[in-house]
Write a structure and sequence with these properties.
This protein is an all-alpha fold. It contains 2 helices and no strands. It has helices at about 1-35, 35-65. Helix 1 (about 1-35) runs antiparallel to helix 2 (about 35-65).
């Protein structure tokens, strides 16, 4: 269903924006505080956000039709 896929894409887009924003704020806070632990956690959050980006890419690929060559 195309509406379901669009809804999923929008939700993933919101999750990506929120995740990257939180990670950036956390990273900046870690640098200001001089906390390696907070910077490391922010790095982990960036990796999680990148996972959401990959999910969005694969959702887009799944919506494309099958090719005639494969």
């Amino acid at each position: 269903d195309n509406r379901s896929a669009n809804s999923s894409s929008k939700k993933l887009g919101v999750a990506i924006v929120i995740s990257f924003t939180v990670a950036a704020v956390e990273f900046i806070g870690g640098v200001i505080a001089g906390s390696i632990a907070v910077i490391a956690d922010a790095s982990h959050d960036f990796v999680d956000a990148f996972g959401f980006v990959l999910s969005l890419v694969f959702l887009w690929l799944a919506r494309r039709g099958a090719s005639s060559t494969l």
